[in-house]
């Protein structure tokens, strides 16, 4: 996407679209001069708004009144535009500038990214879309609550673990509502079950032997890590929807900034500060705009 | 009149450029991955944690306080992604949530945007001009406070609920939920907050739909102001009409009885009429759960109402109503707290045959930052103007001539815990309807609670969860068919390994006497260490091990896991009764201490530095045959 955003041709096209749309918004009706066209969709809109507010359709008199109001607004609006009353009006400025920004959002959503762009976004942000890591392990637990030093007890059990079977080890340690054997538990669920500290320790363990004591919020554990399935970046087809949503989110921000920059480059910014305190402000503003 | 053409023009232009891409793209398949699904056992084996009450920039007050984060940002954050907060601080949840309800205010949906844009219909009014000017001057928070005050008092000059605005905002809410809902992985509910205030007295409800966007898009949020009503009965009518019209399902969750000045759990309707059967049935039907704890105070119990409960004095807000336009008096408290409401409910059960206050519990944040943080080490505050900075603790939160509430008094609380078969809208919603839920002040402790007629200690040896479901009822249920027997309860809690260990589990009982009065008692049923219960049946306080220099503590003073089978020693089969569980952790650092350690904030001695995290389960009720 970055590459695409730096493509001047695309900029040109997007800005062309934006200006074209702006023209559609502010220009008078296209039908002809001095014509105000009212069609089905206008009536439908009026009726549905009325229904939302009153939970019933308007009667003939009410509808006629609302139409009259709409026509009056349209006539005054057209005349106002003709008289250039929209120029230098703070409210209209703000509203139009906001509409321009909405346009860039719409554009970001509507320009469907290509296969390559999606793939690139996936590659550059693979940690966001990875499959979880899966852990298979045994654990026995040593409670802080038992009176004796749980770390000492754990070390003692660990020292005597050589040659012991899993079913023998199972009877060591203190009871708690945790499993003895976790099969292919995701890192997300491991964190829910055993906490952040335990997960961080697990991420550094080698497989194939009893180790510990490992600390958690509950107390201490001895762990036999049997297997870890490392996180994988899935093929695009499996996460297409997530990648697309994320790319659109990122792109809305980038596109907005990029359109603004492009448009800004077509203007000359002149600062005319007299007050001494304001010296230096110009540079700050220019730098900020460059970012 | 032009938007139709707009979309067309865009399509034509963009379409030409992207033919290639369109062809290359296969149809998207909906992800149906169902991790954590536990349907095979026939009962829930997993508890899901979430926030049912989060505001984004779309809420007028949130926007005015400076929230610039969208619905999209809110979901991304809840799912565990890093976002930049409105005040420019990087924010990430310590552990992702399982579900979220973006509940923006029904009233004034989009009003803040209208003020920002100086839209004509708001600028016609003096208030509108004043607020717009304040926002222009960068005093959005001041505008927000004034706006909320006027809204609470019903002195808004404008109608903040124009259908055009509401429609577009409702669509944003729904689109966001639809986009982020991933059945089996993360649930995004469609919902809103009905913002009823009667002279500043809070009657707010969060409304949650079980359904998708197709059903809900045509049904705009019900408003409390002109065009709607601040009367909950009218809200229920609206919910009923939604269900009749669409065949969908919806529920409402009241919150902050503590800011209602006694009217949240009243003995009469809003109009002052006595409750009748129709009223109590509808209240029970539409409001199965209550938000018992949140940032604006904890609402379980109050020391005035429960003088024998040494833990009732906990993060209570008993200064006045929502805008502090009227101060609190002791007579109001009964109508404000969950425990007294449960007791009152028994009285109505006695007289009308149905309990209007038969409610389960959840916790939620009510954060206005788009950031669902109930974590004390990672608290982003009530609104964007009190996101983390050194002096935020002393920032006035609500002020009037009568009283003031300062930011340090806000609570980093809470979350909703739901025992459900799987992480989907349907499954979580159904669990809320049957009240198989509990609230915590932010910790993700796992609490189980079963009531039955023949549980013994031996049940804890075997598969006690299966036993609990097989021979009893879970939290939220009713004890039935217990002729000549005394109820017994299996209670079990596993600590949150990232929070404090457990001090004790308590069972709170309330009952109805023959003369129509009620009673309550708090039983310590199991606790950590070798502390001895004293002659009054109280277990001594657990040691406070928090080191205020570095915000650390020692888990060895509490237990990682507590469980027991408890039989009611004072059971009277002729009395209506309820039982719920309160779990207390050992003291751990309060968010104010993390501000002190991490941001260098300096606070006076009256600001608490530690707190005990809690969990409150939904009750189990007993009725005489």
From TrEMBL, chain A:
PROSITE patterns: PPIC_PPIASE_2 (PS50198). It comes from the Bacteria. Residues 113-227 form the PpiC domain. Its EC number is 5.2.1.8. It is an enzyme of class 5 (isomerase). The keyword Isomerase applies. It catalyses: [protein]-peptidylproline (omega=180) = [protein]-peptidylproline (omega=0). Keywords: Isomerase, Membrane, Rotamase, Signal, Transmembrane, Transmembrane helix. It holds the Pfam family Rotamase_2. The chain crosses the membrane at residues 9-26. The keyword Cell division does not apply. One of its GO terms (molecular function) is peptidyl-prolyl cis-trans isomerase activity. This is peptidylprolyl isomerase. It comes from Aureitalea marina.
From TrEMBL, chain B:
Residues 23-43 are annotated as: Disordered. This is DUF3604 domain-containing protein. It comes from Aureitalea marina.
């Amino acid at each position: 996407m970055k590459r695409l955003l730096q493509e001047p041709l695309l900029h040109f096209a997007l800005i062309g679209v934006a200006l074209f749309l702006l023209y559609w918004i502010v220009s008078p009706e296209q039908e002809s001069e001095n014509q105000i066209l009212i069609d089905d969709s206008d009536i439908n809109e009026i009726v549905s708004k009325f229904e939302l507010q009153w939970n019933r359709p308007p009667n003939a008199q009410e509808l006629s009144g609302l139409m009259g109001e709409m026509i009056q607004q349209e006539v005054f609006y057209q005349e106002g535009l003709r008289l250039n009353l929209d120029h230098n009006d703070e409210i209209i400025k703000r509203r139009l500038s906001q509409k321009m920004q909405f346009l860039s959002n719409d554009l970001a959503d509507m320009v469907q990214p290509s296969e390559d762009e999606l793939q690139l976004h996936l590659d550059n942000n693979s940690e966001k879309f990875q499959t979880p890591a899966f852990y298979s392990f045994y654990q026995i637990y040593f409670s802080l609550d038992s009176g004796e030093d749980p770390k000492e007890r754990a070390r003692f059990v660990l020292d005597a673990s050589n040659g012991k079977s899993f079913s023998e080890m199972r009877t060591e340690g203190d009871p708690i509502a945790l499993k003895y054997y976790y099969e292919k538990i995701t890192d997300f669920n491991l964190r829910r079950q055993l906490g952040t500290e335990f997960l961080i320790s697990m991420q550094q363990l080698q497989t194939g032997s009893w180790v510990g004591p490992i600390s958690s919020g509950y107390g201490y554990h001895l762990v036999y890590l049997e297997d870890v399935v490392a996180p994988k970046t899935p093929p695009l087809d499996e996460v297409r929807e997530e990648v697309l949503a994320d790319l659109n989110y990122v792109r809305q921000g980038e596109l907005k900034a990029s359109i603004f920059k492009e448009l800004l480059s077509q203007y000359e910014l002149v600062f005319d500060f007299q007050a001494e305190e304001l010296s230096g402000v110009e540079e700050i503003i220019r730098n900020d705009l460059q970012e | 009149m032009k938007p139709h053409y707009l979309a067309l023009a865009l399509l034509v232009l963009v379409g030409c450029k992207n033919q290639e891409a369109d062809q290359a793209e296969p149809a998207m398949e909906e992800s149906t991955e169902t991790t954590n699904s536990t349907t095979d056992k026939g009962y829930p084996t997993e508890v899901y944690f979430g926030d049912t009450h989060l505001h984004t920039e779309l809420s007028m007050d949130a926007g005015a306080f400076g929230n610039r984060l969208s619905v999209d940002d809110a979901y991304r954050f809840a799912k565990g992604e890093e976002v930049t907060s409105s005040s420019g601080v990087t924010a990430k949840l310590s552990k992702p949530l399982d579900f979220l309800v973006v509940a923006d205010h029904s009233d004034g949906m989009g009003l803040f945007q209208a003020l920002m844009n100086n839209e004509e219909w708001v600028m016609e009014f003096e208030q509108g001009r004043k607020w717009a000017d304040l926002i222009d001057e960068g005093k959005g928070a001041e505008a927000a406070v004034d706006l909320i005050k006027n809204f609470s008092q019903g002195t808004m000059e404008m109608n903040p609920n124009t259908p055009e605005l509401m429609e577009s905002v409702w669509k944003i809410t729904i689109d966001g939920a639809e986009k982020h809902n991933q059945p089996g992985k993360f649930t995004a509910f469609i919902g809103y907050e009905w913002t009823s205030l009667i002279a500043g007295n809070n009657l707010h409800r969060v409304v949650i739909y079980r359904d998708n966007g197709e059903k809900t898009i045509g049904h705009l949020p019900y408003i409390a102001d002109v065009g709607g009503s601040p009367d909950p009965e009218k809200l229920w009518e609206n919910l009923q009409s939604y269900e009749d019209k669409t065949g969908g399902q919806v529920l409402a969750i009241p919150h902050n009885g503590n800011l209602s000045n006694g009217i949240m759990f009243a003995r009469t309707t809003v109009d002052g009429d006595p409750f009748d059967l129709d009223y109590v049935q509808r209240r029970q039907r539409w409001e199965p759960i209550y938000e018992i704890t949140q940032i604006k105070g904890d609402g379980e119990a109050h020391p005035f109402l429960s003088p024998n409960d040494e833990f009732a004095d906990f993060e209570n807000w008993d200064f006045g109503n929502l805008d502090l336009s009227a101060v609190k008096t002791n007579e109001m408290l009964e109508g404000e707290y969950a425990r007294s409401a449960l007791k009152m409910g028994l009285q109505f059960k006695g007289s009308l045959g149905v309990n209007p206050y038969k409610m389960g519990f959840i916790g939620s944040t009510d954060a206005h930052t788009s950031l669902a943080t109930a974590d004390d080490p990672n608290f982003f505050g009530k609104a964007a103007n009190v996101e983390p900075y050194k002096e935020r603790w002393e920032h006035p939160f609500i002020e009037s001539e009568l009283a003031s509430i300062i930011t340090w008094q806000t609570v980093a609380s809470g979350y909703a815990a739901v025992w459900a078969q799987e992480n989907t809208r349907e499954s979580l919603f159904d669990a809320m309807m049957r009240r198989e839920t509990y609230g915590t002040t932010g910790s993700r402790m796992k609490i189980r609670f079963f009531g039955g007629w023949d549980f013994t200690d031996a049940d804890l040896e075997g598969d006690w969860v299966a036993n609990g479901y097989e021979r009893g009822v879970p939290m939220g249920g009713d004890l039935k068919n217990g002729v000549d027997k005394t109820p017994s309860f299996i209670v079990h809690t596993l600590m949150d390994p990232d929070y404090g260990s457990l001090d004790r589990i308590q069972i709170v009982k309330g009952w109805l006497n023959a003369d129509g009065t009620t009673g309550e008692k708090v039983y310590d049923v199991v606790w950590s260490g070798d502390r001895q219960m004293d002659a009054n049946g109280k277990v001594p306080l657990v040691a406070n091990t928090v080191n205020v220099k570095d915000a650390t503590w020692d888990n060895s003073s509490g237990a990682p896991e507590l469980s027991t089978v408890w039989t009611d020693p004072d059971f009277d089969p002729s009395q209506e009764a309820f039982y719920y569980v309160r779990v207390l952790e050992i003291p751990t650092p309060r968010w104010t201490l993390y501000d002190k350690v991490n941001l260098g904030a300096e606070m006076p001695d009256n600001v608490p530095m530690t707190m005990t995290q809690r969990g409150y389960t939904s009750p189990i009720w007993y009725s005489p045959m």
